[in-house]
Amino acid sequence: PDTVRKVHYFSTTVADKPGQTFKVLAALVSGGVNLLACAGTTRGRQAQIDVVPDDTRRFAAAARKAGLVFSEKKAGFLIQGDDRPGALAEHLKVLAEAGINVVAVDGLSAGAGRWGAIVWVAGQDVARTGRLLRARAK
Fold it and tell me: Secondary structure of the chain in the HEC alphabet?
């Protein structure tokens, strides 16, 4: 069976230059932050970095200490389980049938027969999505 966990993510922007993402991640690592996920995209001359910390309090303390400015937290759902055809589609079907629009999804094979994804929904749909996917608290 898959596990579903509500998670929080934060975004920041940096100059689109070599080493900028490393600086952000190095500051978080030095603060003892474990990331469940990290993504980055270019936006003109800037790069947006999205992070999903395992512990939001530790993340906030490390970011503050490093002088990093992140967006306010937003919620999503981390789904993990044994890899199989249609694993992600099973969860998306539940949301589609309930009329919940998925804002974004990031999924991948984790190797060793495992998979994972983060499903993002609009703020007003977070509580309902959590119930539908039977998300557990950390």
Answer: CCEEEEEEEEEEEEECCCCHHHHHHHHHHHCCCCEEEEEEEEECCEEEEEEEECCHHHHHHHHHHHCCCCCCCEEEEEEEEECCCCHHHHHHHHHHHCCCCEEEEEEEEEECCEEEEEEEECHHHHHHHHHHCCCECC
pLDDT tens digit sequence for 60-106: 999 999 999 999 999 999 999 999 999 999 999 999 999 999 999 99
The whole-number pLDDT of residue 14 equals 96
